Amino acid sequence: MADLDSTEDPRDFHAGVPQRADGFFLKGGAHQDWGLKNRLARIFDPASGRTVMLAFDHGYFQGPTTGLERIDLSIVPLIPWADTLMLTRGILRSVIPPATTKAIVLRASGGPSVLKELSDERLAVAVEDAVRLNAAALAVQVFVGGEHETQSIENMTRLVDLGTRYGVPTLAVTAVGKNMVRDARYFRLATRICAELGAHYVKTYYVEEGFETVTSCCPVPIVIAGGRKLPELDALRMAANAIQRGAAGVDMGRNIFQSEAPAAMIQAVRAVVHGNETPEHAFDLYRELGRVQPTHG
Ligand code: R5P
After folding, report:
1. Atom from ligand 1 closest to the CA of residue 226
2. Staple 242 to which of 11, 86, 164, 247, CB 3.0 to 4.6 Å?
3. Nearest atom (ligand 1) to Cα of 173
4. Using CB atoms within 10 A of its CB, is residue 163 exposed (0-12), middle (13-18) or buried (19+)?
């Protein structure tokens, strides 16, 4: 039982000190509920406001793509340097150690394989299962301009409704069809539609021309996908440019796990994202940590 004596003479109510009313560090998040903000703060480091998401969910439509044949061997050793793991629930339950404390962003849409029309996705996880898995966010593909545009947007709005019920944010992933133009105009359209319809943050691709216009008119944070494998220095330059032009982080897969030295590469990416390091210095770090000779740049 608590000591009653100690409650008789409270010493100091700090009556003259107003309680702090802190804002929230993340763009567009100030008016969300506590649990949702807390999950976002596990994804985005409150110190930098940014995130390094390690993406290895590719198998949900591609199968065992290069670098992801054995996730236990290629990805699990990289976990210490990731802020967030983006993956499917199948890999989470079968391969990822439950003792990991990293934020989990769970792939929540799927259906077609690479052999079919990719925009024909459905929701592929129940929100209760995502909560059971302690997911920090749910990720859904949105195909603006794609064959099943409306269906994919409805997937997203349903997920926003379901996730918000439990305080779980939704990451909208803008997916670009093979024959569509990847330019700032398209990404302004796609990211803004996602945000307007409730996504809490949006993943898109980096474009050289006008990327800052994409980030500036999207009212929630944007992270960039890494995309196809580039030479390491080029990938670091892309990440640095995206950050300088308003991105709140990267959701990077192939440019890390297909690197010659994945552990060195993710640390170099962290230096750019969280440390504002120049790509050239980060590349030096990559070479030093990976003990590999430069082949480009
Ligand atoms: C698509 O397979 C997923 O959304 C990936 O998580 C995303 O494309 C990021 O991976 P990468 O950097 O390899 O493009």
Report:
1. 12
2. 247
3. 4
4. buried
**pLDDT tens digits, one per residue of 11-53:** 889 999 999 888 999 999 999 999 999 999 999 999 999 999 9
Average pLDDT score over residue span 71-95: 98
- Cut 0.90: pTM above it: yes
Residue 118 CB–ligand 1 contact under 6 Å: no
The best mutation among 53, 58, 78 to test binding of ligand 1, ranked by most ligand atoms within 8 Å of the C-beta, falls on 58
* Digit-coded pLDDT (tens) for 239-260: 999 999 999 999 999 999 999 9
Q: Is 235 in the pocket of ligand 1 (CB under 6 A)?
A: no
203 is a catalytic site residue: yes
Q: What are phi and psi of 172, to 5 degrees?
A: -90, 130
The C-alpha atoms of residue 274 and residue 97 are separated, in whole angstroms, by: 25
